[in-house]
Design goal:
CATH topology: Rossmann fold
Shape: globular
Strand content: 5-15%
Helix content: 40-55%
Largest sheet: 5 strands, parallel
Distance between the termini: 49 Å
CATH architecture: 3-Layer(aba) Sandwich
CATH superfamily: Glycogen Phosphorylase B
Radius of gyration: 16 Å
Number of strands: 5
CATH class: Alpha Beta
Strand order of the largest sheet: 3-2-1-4-5
């Protein structure tokens, strides 16, 4: 199986590093790609032959990796979430937690809860539960697929409403 792990582009994400390492060690036949984010110390991941990791990939390369992935494991950033939903890509979320210094506030928890509630996409706050979910992931199962056109229309409608609200302020 080919999995893309995405930690975001703002801060290091040690819990995602732990998940990547745990999956890489337990599934050496799987191909794992990890965009770990800026200022990350990749040496903490050791030399795992089934893992290709770097802080950031060029946009074209990242898109190719995304397209080839059977599963995406991502922080709860809207860019990756929307890309997964619009392209029908199965994904799991690990929201960054403010109490662990992973972000400024817990907006990613709020996002993950909302996406889970609307689209039934699982999220995990614990690394052990996420590793277990990845190892148990069934590629043959029917993923939740939302038509990309529907997501695009919902995003446009939201943008119009937000712009109208801003104009009233």
């Amino acid at each position: 199986m080919r999995i893309l792990f995405a930690a975001g582009t703002q801060f290091p994400f040690p819990r995602m590093d732990q998940v990547v390492q745990g999956v890489a060690e337990q599934r050496p036949a799987w191909t794992l790609v990890y965009q770990a984010g800026p200022d990350v110390n990749l040496s903490t991941l050791g030399s795992l032959p089934n893992l290709r990791a770097q802080p950031l990939f060029k946009a074209e390369e990242y898109q190719q990796i995304f397209t080839e992935a059977a599963l995406v494991v991502t922080h709860a950033g809207m860019g990756n979430i929307l890309a997964c939903l619009e392209q029908g890509k199965p994904f799991l979320m690990l929201p960054r937690l403010a109490r662990l210094g992973e972000h400024r506030n817990d907006h990613q928890v709020d996002t993950a809860e909302a996406i889970a509630g609307i689209y039934a996409v699982p999220f995990h706050e614990g690394t052990d539960s996420l590793v277990s979910a990845i190892l148990a992931y069934d590629m043959a199962a029917e993923p939740i697929v939302i038509a990309g056109e529907t997501i695009h229309r919902q995003r446009q409608d939201f943008g119009k409403k937000l712009n109208a609200l801003i104009r009233t302020l």
